[in-house]
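Support request, please re-run this one:
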Amino acid sequence: MEYIIFGAGVTGRRALYFLDYWRVACFAANSPCEPVDNKNVVSYDTMLKMVAEGDYIIVVASEKFYEEMVAQLKADDVDKYFVFHETDTHKILEIYPSYSMYKYSISVPYVRVLALQGISKYKKIAIYGDNYFLPYLIAEIAF
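Re-run finished. Output below.
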């Protein structure tokens, strides 16, 4: 499973590094453009073919056009997506587990917590509660 970032602008670039460069297969855009940070940018139609043939999570990454992009995905029956907002990179630190060390607060990302718990051995996982960042947690569990 990998991410495809739908939106190759500034927000897409921030999503690339927030989500982990190596987990992103490519970018997708409605308008053709050059590669972004050494990742190919495919057309919207190519992205749809990739989603039909593989196991991808679409990350909608645009502050201005995300509503239209989500509507576009829904119209094409794409249901494995979530919207990345630039502010997510700061807000998520507030809910990550954290600990203090040498007077500094250190946040532990979901991926680290899940790896330490050996979550891959479980066949079913229940999530109790809901918050704005649930799509990130679900994506990490899927990985």
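The longest strand covers residues 24-29. Residues 10-19 form the longest helix (10 residues).
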